[in-house]
């Protein structure tokens, strides 16, 4: 297929991210072997793709494939200090420059512009690593080509909604990461402005109730269409949301990453761990990508496709946003069982531990273990849904508004604890367009869904909800033991029984496990007497 060159790069990006969160020596051994195999396959001129010599970088999605390989090699070099990986990345970039810089060719001629011009992102990362001028010059030429393709810079400055730009396919989101690189390299705030406009536009018009992105692989200006939500599209949305978080420090961006991770992303991976979806619909069924897009596979590898190699990146991105460093301390964005170590700006290491059942419970205990007592600011994300959150500090108690960071500056000693209590009440969001007269129900960060496997009536007989029913709902947590009813790794995280009148009960489960037995599920539920949807 035209994008065959991306598979190894996407796999390695996911795998290097996973290494940041794992001490598994087998994973390290596997990634190193794949890196060495990729480098060994590189042609003398730097080519890393699967196509014949007379087609190299000139057609297909070949530059797109090189983009992923270059990014993966650079990430591995940054992790392992592997000089061969950096050299291979530079050879590939040099071939890109030799083909299109100071020649009579332009990247526009390669076609598939939203895919192929995304190489600007890897060139930017490589320029910041090496200082090589020709990589920046190549970026400038791609920026000129944008004017005849996606026009991302000028449309961003003009405040044109992303879905109305010339190239609103999902691959363009990786082009937008080139705007971030140009801002970091030049300091020109216009690049930042354009990027953030597009991110905010997509959040408003195209991010789905599950945190997924796209409608049939592109932005369309409505999050309500019952169309495919491709796993790769959600990955791209999460990647640019990490960039938005880094650029702004806005807790809203971290809220978006939490929504995507706990719902659309985990919903895209089957609880068995054996497969990823291509499409994780808001309502419907989930199919393995090696069924839905098996045309991408090669003989003997039916599971090989764009989404199966890219999906794990949604989980690996936790290494990029869960715990972050600020100028004067640490930022905790992710809540869930974890232990992580990060260095402060002055080089001192701090280990952060969390004990919690989050996201099914709102109580979180955080223990800090600096190498020795150290003064720094700890920023705690208070999710936008978490009204009336209570925080207990080592020597006091406080509250903080939802949708903000609580900044706590003090001298932290080894073993100091912070405890959060985030009330997890049921809430709903009203639909519009194709979902008018329906609602999405949430508990904490989790989207809930009807699953026919948990109810004694079919989808067509689902009762109509009203807010009073939600106030009387009861929450339970199934026993995950294999011998328990509906237990084992297919067990839902939680069940919510909503009284629906006439001695009927509507049972909802978390979206991430809904449909895992192959059953139909629905996350847009029929409703009445609800608040109007946001104006469109």
Mean pLDDT, rounded to whole units?
A: 95
**What fraction strand?**
15-25%
Rough outline: globular
Radius of gyration: 24 Å
Explained architecture:
The structure is a single chain. The relative contact order is 0.08. The model has no long low-confidence stretch (mean pLDDT 95). Helix 3 packs antiparallel against helix 4, helix 6 packs parallel to helix 9 and helix 11 runs antiparallel to helix 12. This protein is of the alpha+beta class and 536 residues long. The two termini are 38 Å apart. It contains 17 helices and 19 strands.
Secondary structure blueprint with pairings:
Blueprint: H1 6-20, H2 25-40, H3 62-80, H4 83-100, H5 113-116, H6 119-130, H7 133-146, H8 152-157, H9 172-186, H10 189-205, H11 231-248, H12 251-268, E1 283-284, H13 289-292, H14 306-310, H15 312-316, H16 318-321, E2 323-326, E3 329-332, E4 338-343, E5 349-356, E6 363-370, E7 374-382, E8 389-393, E9 396-400, E10 404-412, E11 416-421, E12 426-430, E13 438-443, E14 446-451, H17 467-471, E15 474-476, E16 495-499, E17 505-510, E18 521-522, E19 525-526
Parallel strand pairs: 3-7
Antiparallel strand pairs: 1-18, 2-3, 4-5, 5-6, 6-11, 7-10, 8-9, 8-11, 12-13, 13-14, 13-19, 14-17, 14-18, 15-16, 16-17
What's this model, at a glance?
This protein has helices spanning 6-20, 25-40, 62-80, 83-100, 113-116, 119-130, 133-146, 152-157, 172-186, 189-205, 231-248, 251-268, 289-292, 306-310, 312-316, 318-321, 467-471, and strands at residues 283-284, 323-326, 329-332, 338-343, 349-356, 363-370, 374-382, 389-393, 396-400, 404-412, 416-421, 426-430, 438-443, 446-451, 474-476, 495-499, 505-510, 521-522, 525-526. It has 536 residues and is of the alpha+beta class. Helix 1 (6-20) packs antiparallel against helix 2 (25-40), helix 1 runs parallel beside helix 3 and helix 9 (172-186) runs parallel beside helix 11.
């Amino acid at each position: 297929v035209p994008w065959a060159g991306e598979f190894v790069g996407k796999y390695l990006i996911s795998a290097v991210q996973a290494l940041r969160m794992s001490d598994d020596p087998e994973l390290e051994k596997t990634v190193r072997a794949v890196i060495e195999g990729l480098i060994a396959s590189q042609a003398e001129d730097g080519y890393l793709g699967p196509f014949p010599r007379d087609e190299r970088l000139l057609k297909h999605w070949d530059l797109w494939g090189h983009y992923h390989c270059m990014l993966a090699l650079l990430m591995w070099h940054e992790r392992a200090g592997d000089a061969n990986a950096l050299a291979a990345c530079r050879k590939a970039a040099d071939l890109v420059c030799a083909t299109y810089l100071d020649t009579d060719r332009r990247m526009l001629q390669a076609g598939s512009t939203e895919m192929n011009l995304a190489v600007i992102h890897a060139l930017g990362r490589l320029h910041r690593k090496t200082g090589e001028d020709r990589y920046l010059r190549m970026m400038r030429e791609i920026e000129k080509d944008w004017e005849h393709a996606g026009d991302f810079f000028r449309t961003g400055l003009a405040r044109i909604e992303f879905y109305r730009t010339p190239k609103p396919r999902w691959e363009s989101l990786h082009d937008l990461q080139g705007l971030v690189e140009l801002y970091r390299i030049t300091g020109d705030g216009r690049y930042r402005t354009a990027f953030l406009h597009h991110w905010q536009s997509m959040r408003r018009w195209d991010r789905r109730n599950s945190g997924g992105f796209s409608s049939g692989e592109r932005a369309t200006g409505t999050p309500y269409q019952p169309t495919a939500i491709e796993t790769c599209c959600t990955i791209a949305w999460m990647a640019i949301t990490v960039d938005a978080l880094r650029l702004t420090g806005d807790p809203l961006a971290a809220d978006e990453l939490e929504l995507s991770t706990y719902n659309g992303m985990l919903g895209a991976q089957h609880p068995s761990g054996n497969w990823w979806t291509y499409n994780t619909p808001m309502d419907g069924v989930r199919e393995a990508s090696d069924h839905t897009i098996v045309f991408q596979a090669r003989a003997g590898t039916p599971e090989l496709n764009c989404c199966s190699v890219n999906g794990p990146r949604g989980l690996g991105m936790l290494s990029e946003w869960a715990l972050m460093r600020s100028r004067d301390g640490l930022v905790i964005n992710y809540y869930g069982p974890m232990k992580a170590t990060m260095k402060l700006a002055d080089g001192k290491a701090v280990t952060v531990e969390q004990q919690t059942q989050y996201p099914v419970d709102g109580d979180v205990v955080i223990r800090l273990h600096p190498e020795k007592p150290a003064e720094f600011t700890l920023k705690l994300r208070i999710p936008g849904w978490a009204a009336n959150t209570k925080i207990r500090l080592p020597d006091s108690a406080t509250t903080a508004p939802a949708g903000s960071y609580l900044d706590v500056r003090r001298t932290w000693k080894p073993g100091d604890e912070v405890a959060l209590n985030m009330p997890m009440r049921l809430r709903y969001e009203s639909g519009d367009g194709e979902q008018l007269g329906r609602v999405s129900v949430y508990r904490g960060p989790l989207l809930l869904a009807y699953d026919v496997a948990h109810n004694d009536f079919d989808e067509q007989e689902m009762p109509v909800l009203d807010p009073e029913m939600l106030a009387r709902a009861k929450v339970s947590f199934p026993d995950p033991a294999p011998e328990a009813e509906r237990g084992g790794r297919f067990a839902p995280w939680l069940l919510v029984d909503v009284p629906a009148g006439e001695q009927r009960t509507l049972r909802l489960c978390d979206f991430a496990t809904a449909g895992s037995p192959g059953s139909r599920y629905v996350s847009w539920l029929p409703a009445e007497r609800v608040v109007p949807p946001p104006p469109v």
